[in-house]
Fold this sequence. Notes:
InterPro entries: EHR_sf (IPR035912), ERH (IPR000781). It comes from Castanea mollissima. The protein is about 45% helix and about 25% strand. The protein contains 3 helices and 4 strands, in the order ββααββα. Strands 2-1-3-4 form a 4-stranded antiparallel beta sheet.
Amino acid sequence: MANKHTIILIQTSQNRATRTFMDYESISQAMDGICGLYERKLKELNPAIRNITYDIADLYNFIDGLADMSALVYDHSIQGYLPYDREWIKQRTFHHLKKLAH
């Protein structure tokens, strides 16, 4: 599943104008992108702190705090995109970060 084009759909608030997307060449890159999005938000909220750390629960709270987040992952066998929900994204980010830690 590593090299499957992935589109992350995000809505940051109830305002429909906050809908946006990020697209990546792989699921792994998409999970990096989600972590990067959270890290940028942390830096924005804490500009004076040079080294910001967080744990998986903090990342999950960020994901859950969004109005909506889902993923579309390209599946070559059907030549189309399969939808995945926020829980799948949280599971994938956990496994992705776990791999990076080892």
